[in-house]
Amino acid sequence: MSESANGPRALGRLLIAVFACTPLGIVGNSPHAGAQPAQVHEAPAITIRGLDLHDGQIMQQGGTYYFYGTMYAPDNTDSNCTQPFVWRDTASQWCGFGVSTAHSLKGPWSAPTVLISNTSEDYAIDQPFEQACMGRDGTFARPNGEGCFEPRMYHQTWGNQKWTLWFNVPNNETDRRETGVFQIVCAGPAGPCDPQDWAVPVYSGGCADEATGMQVVTLGRTAVLFCATIDQTLAETELGGDGVSASDLGGLTSVESPGVYYDHASKAWVLTYSDPNCGYCAGTGTGFATHRATSLTGDDAWAVLGHTSSADQLETSTTNCGGQPGGVDMLGGRAYEQVDLWAGTSWGEAGSPTRLEPLGDPTVAAVQYPCPSVRLSGRELRDADAKGAGGRPQSLGSAHGSSPGRA
């Protein structure tokens, strides 16, 4: 996300820098399209398999793509992570954040490099991150297995010019009553990252109550943080400048995972979000709202257009190909919705693919791309079982319900 937004001059606000978007159409049907012919995307949908990186971000820096994500399998980290992560399973372990690189979105992708492991020290509480993420740091009556999620890398062009890894610590917001946004300084887009050089970037404003889902939009020397709050509403907070913020964007409720991009065809900022909020659900809709004001911050003037829950509304691929939208990636000047195609397997989500759906003018229908199979091959299943604590089945528990932290 090193490119800068190319929209109207505006004060700046997940986690992903936004760039100018070419006039592409959104996949699916639109209630605003009338009898217009379906638009064909200049960029196809892309499915990435075989990487244990999830609920994260893909960034382009020069000729290299960087894929950041949460790691669910123990073989990606040190030997202290012996159980695959399963949300709210207190017998599982949180296994860290990693990054993989490639020169094409189609790969080949490198083996993930660990940026934050389960044993990395969380200097905010002087305990390993696994303790903070799983609720084992003594703050709680018992471990809760909430985890940590949504790593995003930003080059802070609006501030100190440092590379910083941002991520979500639900326990900070839901139980420690602190903001859920956390950041750590890194040497570059591929790390290494220094847990001792940490900060909480937002103490007040709409995103001080961030719980799940965030994206940073950079606009020159300013930036805006968009987030989902603990109440499952959307908010924004200006980073630097006057620190202007707004809450309850669009009057939306029960949503999460905001993403933002500027669409030249409609001359509007576009906000996407997961509708409804739901932990690891299949077939979750993507909602769309637009903003035409000259300022991107300080008000909630987002016009809600629709979502993907039914065929007569806006959609990327139908119900996101059985996945869950997680935010917007800006790649090569084009916007993509990043979708986690959760596999829903008993051992966790390590083998779940990632889908990139091209975005554009949210008022124009476009040709819908066929969905890939989310079923894993026999070899993938055997490999996953081998990673899962000697084949011990992991109970998903309530992992397909909603959550106040990872909703």
Describe what you observe in this structure:
The chain has 407 residues and is mainly beta. The protein has a single domain, classed as Glycosyl hydrolase domain, family 43 (Tachylectin-2, Chain A, 5 Propeller), CATH 2.115.10.20. The protein is built from three helices and 23 strands. The strands form six sheets. A five-stranded mixed sheet has the order 1-17-18-19-20, with no helix packed on it. A four-stranded antiparallel sheet has the order 2-23-22-21, with no helix packed on it. Strands 3-4-5-6 form a four-stranded antiparallel sheet, with no helix packed on it. A hairpin with a 2-residue loop joins strand 13 and strand 14 (222-229). The radius of gyration is 19 Å and the shape is globular. Residues 1-40, 309-315, 376-382 and 384-407 have low confidence and may be disordered.
Bulk shape: globular
Q: Judging by the overall fold, what is the CATH architecture?
A: 5 Propeller
**Largest sheet properties:** 5 strands, mixed
Number of helices: 3
Ends distance: 25 Å
* Portion of residues within helices: under 10%
Q: Using the CA coordinates, give the radius of gyration.
A: 19 Å
Write down how many β-strands occur, each being a DSSP E stretch of 2 or more residues.
23
The H/E string reads: EEEEEEEEHEEHEEEEEEEEEEEEEH
Structural class: mainly beta
- Strand arrangement within the widest β-sheet reads 1-17-18-19-20
> Which percent band covers the strand fraction?
25-35%
Return the CATH topology: Tachylectin-2, Chain A
CATH superfamily: Glycosyl hydrolase domain, family 43
**Average pLDDT figure:** 76
Number of domains as seen in the coordinates: 1
- Spans where pLDDT lies below 50 across 5 or more residues: 1-40, 309-315, 376-382, 384-407
CATH class label:
Mainly Beta
